[in-house]
Amino acid sequence: MKRLLSTDPEGFDGPCGELLHRLYSRGQEIKARLHQIEGNLLDGNLEGTSEHNRWAGNRCAPLIDDYVVVFAVEEYSEENELTRHVYLLAVELEKHRH
Amino acid sequence: MNRALVRLRNRNQITLPSAILSGLGLEAGDWLELTVSNSNCVQLRPARIVTADTPEAEQLEHAAAENVRRKNYSTFRSSEEFDRHLDKIANADVIELPSESRTVEPVKMISSEELKQRVMSAVEAALRDEPATYSK
Fold first, then answer.
1. Does B94 reach chain A within 8 Å, measured CB to CB?
2. A1-16 pLDDT, tens digit each
3. Is there a domain that residue A78 lies in?
């Protein structure tokens, strides 16, 4: 199976860059968690993720503190090869849940 | 509305007045979204991390979904590529955005004659007690 990871420049790259800048001392922690999320999603493992936006079918995974990564996974067949494509759509601040 | 003239310096840099920065709650390291409209207006607006389940978040996710549909995204085939991308965005000063995402509507200019006609039309409609109509 082909595995592809894509990031949205507006929703993911900008906010992620801002987070890495703001939490500079925790950069390695953020990157390690992103790699863990990336690996799990490309393996098709959605454990620890939750439905984020019912109408869009997006899901989210905890990143660090109250920040979450919003993502979508698409599986399709291209030139007779099954492809799992993970799109990292956004980094958002999750509201506190009581 | 706060207005200021700023000069474009060497290396394409401008200094934003501190009063405007503090009014917007901006500080060094924050991102600004720069948009150039069809009428050559440059708009800068804070591009902060948004809170989930808000209209701003919904707009951002909708734009991201549109970018997926149009294949406007960066794709990585290995963890190492993704790692290099993370390093790049952590140290970037500029992130290119798809040109069609969240554009500023250009201000439509009308002639004084057209304005006069619209006003007259509205006055006449008001006198007839019916809604004013005009073609855009």
1. no
2. 899 999 999 899 989 9
3. yes
B99–A contact, CB cutoff 8 A: no
Which domain range does residue A46 map to?
A: 2-93
Examine residue A98 and state whether it is found in any structural domain, yes or no: no
Token pair of B92 as six digits: 């970037």
Would you say residue A66 lies in a domain? yes
User: Number of A:B CB contacts under 8 A?
Assistant: 132
- Inspect the interface and report whether the beta carbons of B64 and A4 lie closer than 8 Å: no
CATH number of the domain that A53 lies in?
Answer: 3.30.2310
Give the residue from chain B lying closest to A22, CA to CA: B29
Reported pTM: 0.73
Q: SS3 letters for B20-53?
A: HHHHHCCCCCCCEEEEECCCCCEEEEECCCCECC
Complex prediction ipTM: 0.88
Q: How far is A81 from chain B (nearest CA, A)?
A: 15
